[in-house]
Amino acid sequence: MSPDLSWLSALHDIHPGPLPGEANRLPALGMCAAALLALMLALHLLRVMTQRLYWRYHSQELPWDELHDALRELSAKRWPELAALPTAAWLGALDTLTGSQLQRWQPQWDGWRFGPMPPGPISRDQLDGALRPVFRALFPLWPSTRSQVASSGGRR
To answer: Fewer C-beta within 10 Å: the chain N or C terminus?
Structure first.
């Protein structure tokens, strides 16, 4: 004995199916994936810029020897061949690579680093100006002018 299935003929599909233009959902998935990728990239760049602005904000408060060590470490990451150079050659190489003119500070540099006298406020402001090309080379997204730093929330 087989069951009576005549009642199935009264059933019909209440979902008519995709319209002709909706048949291919791949472009929509591609757009979602691209938007997600763009969002991830934007968040990564925001994190990098936040770290760089943090560095800019706190570099003013670092003792000179810590600032020197941080610059050596960052420059060694960017240019590994500079890691083993002595201070005078390292400053010259930074001048060549970045155009920073740090070589003129070489006679006082080691005294500031190892001596009891850190650079004075005027020297520190001049050094900050000389370090700006180094920071731009180490961090390609570094703001190039003080107005850009001020508008982005930095201290300077």
So the answer is: N
How many residues are given for the chain? 156
Q: What count of Cα atoms within 13 Å lies in the side-chain half-sphere of residue 4?
A: 2
Amino acid letter at 91?
Answer: L
CA distance 136 to 144: 7
**What is the DSSP-derived secondary structure letter of residue 81?**
G
Only one residue has tokens 């706190």, namely 58
Name the token pair of 41. 């990239």
| Cβ(101)–Cβ(109) below 8 Å | no
Residues 42-63 pLDDT 10s = 999 988 888 777 766 666 667 7
Q: The tokens of 65 are what?
A: 């020897």
* pTM metric for this prediction: 0.53
Q: Which one-letter DSSP state was computed for residue 88?
A: H
